[in-house]
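SAMPLE LOG
Freezer: B-3
Tube label: C17
Construct: single chain, 127 aa
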Amino acid sequence: MTPFELIALKQRVGREYADEAELFVLIHFDAAHRKVLGPIGYNFISRHLVIAQYVFAKLRQPALLDLVRVAGIAWQRAGGRPGELASLTTAEYAAMRAGLRVYFRALHKIEVGTYRQGCNVADQVMK
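STRUCTURE (predicted):
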């Protein structure tokens, strides 16, 4: 790894990318709330939940990791029910909001290298 690559990995994700990712996740989350979410949107949100779990585990943030894990469990439970894809109960919706909130509040401060590793983990998990 060259010094330039190392410097690039130490850069922060940044507000612009974080805002863009948040917008797309929230659009899909709103579709789930309205019961019109498709499988692509479900997988998109699932991928970000896996990334969030990896990032908070790597950063050793147990309180934030717990919120995201609870959100992930709620998301899996909602996706496993017969009927509409990701039909959220009130408690699951609240858990998802809390998990996504802490993830997007932290995303712009996360190092690109850590985020990239989380993306790689999510790609492996989502296969």
